[in-house]
Amino acid sequence: MYLHIGNNVIINKENIIFILDYENLKDNKIFKEFYEGIDKNNKYDISEGKAKSIIITKENNIIKAYISNISSTTLGKRKF
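RE: above sequence
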């Protein structure tokens, strides 16, 4: 199964580690350290300047981060 996370981006639900609220994390020191540790080629900001959620995935042993303009609550309501 797949999940549409905004801006015509679809990811495999099996690869999702977690979906988090952007507003609650943007100033969190621990999350910033984690996020900075992700290779810049594996960070995708598809939010068009309206960041609402962060989706962390693991695909082929590579951690990827997507910043989406769809809220974490809305994404979470989509059937897993």
